[in-house]
Amino acid sequence: MASLPTDFLNESTNLQVADAEVNIQVLKADGRVVPFHAKKIYKAIKKAERFLSEQNEAAADYDVDAVVALVVDKLIASETESVSTDDIHDQVEATLAEMGNLPLAEAYNTYKLTKKVKKLQQQDIELRIQSLMNADQSIVNENANKDSRVFNTIRDLTAGVAAKAIGLRMLPKHVSNAHMKGDIHYHDLDYQPYSPMTNCVLIDFQNMLREGFKIGNAEVDSPRSVNTATAQMAQIFANVASSQYGGCSADRVDEVLAPYARLNYEKHLETAKDWVEGEAKQIAYAEEKTRKDIYDAMQSLEYEINTLYTSNGQTPFTTLGFGLGTDWFAREIQKAVLQVRIKGLGKERRTAIFPKLIFALKKGTNLETQDPNYDIKQLAITCATKRMYPDVLMYDKIVELTGSFKTPMGCRSFLQGWKDENGNEVNSGRMNLGVVTLNIPRIALESEGNPEAFWNIFEERLAICKDALVYRVERTKEATPTNAPILYQHGAFGKRLGETDNVDELFKDKRATVSLGYIGLYEAATVFYGGDWETNPEAKAFTLDIVKKMKEKTDAWGNQYGYHFSVYSTPSESLTDRFCSMDTEKFGIISDITDKEYYTNSFHYDVRKNPNPFEKIAFEMEYPQYCSGGFIHYCEYPNLQQNPKALETVWDFAYDKVGYLGTNTPIDHCLECGFEGDFNPTERGFQCPECGNTDPQTCDVVKRTCGYLGNPQIRPMVKGRHKEISARVKHLHADCKSEQ
Q1: Considering the entire predicted model, what is its pTM?
Q2: Which end of the chain has fewer beta carbons closer than 10 Å to its terminal beta carbon, N or C?
Q3: How many angstroms from the chain centroid is the CA of residue 449?
Q4: Could you give the domains of the chain?
C-alpha cells in the first residue's frame, strides 16, 4: 500500500506502549465493553492541547508519551480487569496535574465536559427548538425538498426537532452515541423511532385502482377513465407520503393506466358510431379524442403532484416508472408523460421537480432502431437533454442485479426479487423500513492507514449498525394497521390487513427491506493510496472489498432475522456535509479528504477528476453487485440540447454495464434575459452568467441534490452539497469552452 499523505494527521505518536500489554476491558458510557487502546489516551491529550491553544493559552512543557505510559502503569497496577471511561479520564487528569501541567489538566477536563454537553444538547428538546428558531442551517436545510419559510413546513420542522431529541433517547445507548459522534447516521430521526413509520414504498396502484380504496371518509370506486385514474393516483401519492417519511413510486405506470385509457377509447368509439360514418373514421376519431384525454390526464397528474403538500410539509417524493408497454394505449401514455415534462410548468415553462421520471430500456422493446418503441426512446432522450429526466433503467441488468425488474422506491432504493407463498413474483406493495449509514472515511482515518486496524474498526461499527437496523425493524413492527390505513388496510402495501392484524405480515420472510448505507469510498481509499487512486487496481479492489464485506454481513443478518437487509448507496444530501464537518473537527484539514468540505456519495468517481461518461461508467459498474439494495450512476455533460445523439450513445454503451443511469446536464433558465445553460454558484445561491440575475423568482435553477432534482435557489443546500455542485459546474464550464 502507498504511504499516508504527509498531512494526514496533525501529530503522530511514538508510543512504545503496546495495547496487548494492557489486558483491560473498557466500560463505555453507552454500555459497551471494548478493548483498551493506549493510543486513544494519546489522541485525547493532544486534542486537549489543541483546545487549550484555541483559548490562546499554552501547555507547560511535557512529554505526552510519558503521560500515557504513566497512566497505563497506574491502570496495570490497579490489577482491575475492567475500567470505565470516566475512570480513565480521571487518571489522565490526575497524572497531568501530578506532572505539574495544571493548565493542560484543566483543558483536558473542560474538553471532555464539552463533548458530554454537546451530546446532551442533541437530546435536549428545548435547545433543538431554539436552534430551529435561530435558523440553524443544519436543521432548516437538511432536506432540499422542504421550503423552511412556509408555515406548514416550519410546524413539521418544529415537530421534527422534538422527535429527534426523543428518538435519540429511545435508541439503544450505543446506537444513539454512535450517531451523535458521527460514526453512523440513523436516518430520518425526525420521524422514526419516535413513530413506528416505514420509509419508502413501491405502491400497489394496480390493486388499488382495480379494487378501490378508502381515504378519510370517502370510499373510492375503480375509475372509469384515465383522467379519473390519474386524479386518484395523485390522492394516493399524497396520502401515502403523509403516512411514511420516504419516497413513493409507481411501477410500470403506462401499463397500469392503459386499461383505463381503453375505457376512454371505448366510450369515444361508441359516440363516433352515432355521429361519424365509416369504421376507419370512427377509429381515428376515438384515437384522437383518447390521445387528448391521455395528455390531459398526465398533465393534470404532473400539476397535481407539484402543487401538493403532505402533512410532512413538503411536496411528495414521487417517482413514475414507465417504458415497457407496447400496445397503443401504453405508448400514448409514455409519449404524454414525456411531452408534458418537455413543455414545462406554467407560463414560464419551468422544469418540474416531481415526479421523478424513470424510463425503462429493453432490447426488443425500445433499445434499437428496429424495436417497436424506439421512437419513444428518442422522445425520452430529447426530454432528458431539456429537463434532466428521465433517468433510465436497463432491463436486463436490473434483473441480473436485483432478481426481478422494478422501479426503485424513491430515488434509488431497490427491492430484491421476491415471491409469495403461491410462487407469484411480487414487487408493488412492498416497502423499506429505514436506513442506517456507516461513515467509511472516519474508519480509514482512525486506522491511520493500518489495514488490520481498518478492518477491526469496520467490524465493530458494523455490529453497531446491525443493532440499529434490528431496532428499526422492531420499532416499525409496533405499528398497528389503524396507524396508517392507506398503507395497511386499503392496498398501498398490497395485501390488506384488518384492524387487529399484525403489520409484520407485510414485512417478514424478506418481503420488506431494511438498508445498511455507506458513504465515502473515495475518501477511504485516499487515506491508504492517495487522492488519485482510481487507476490503481489495488485501491479499487480495497473499495470493492468494503462493499463486498458489507453484503456478506447483511446477507447473514437477513438469514438470521427474516428481513431483507440490503446494502444501500446512500443519497447523502446533507450527510456529505455532516460527516465531513464532524471529521474535520476530529482530525483537522486533510488533503483530498476533509479539505473539500464534502464527502463523495457512495461509490462515485471523484467529480473533481472530470471523467468522461464512458470512464465513469466503466469505473463504477462493478459496485452495484454488492449494493443492489440501492444504487444509481450519474454522468456529467455540457449542454446536450443540440446533440441528443451523444446522450443516446452513452445510454447504449451503459445498457449491459450498469442498471440505473441518471443525467447531469445544464438546464438552468434565466427568465430575465432568456439564458439557458449552467448558472454560476455563489455563496448565497446561483447567478445567471449572462445578465448577473440572482433573483430566485426569475432564476429557474435546477440541480441534482441527490437522487432527485432540486431548486437550490428556493431551498438552499448544505455547504458540502454546494461545494460539490460548484466543482461539477466548474468542470462543465471547462468542457463547454473546450468544445467551442
Answers
A1: 0.84
A2: C
A3: 28
A4: 25-123 (no CATH), 171-195+414-667+702-727 (3.20.70.20), 200-402 (no CATH)
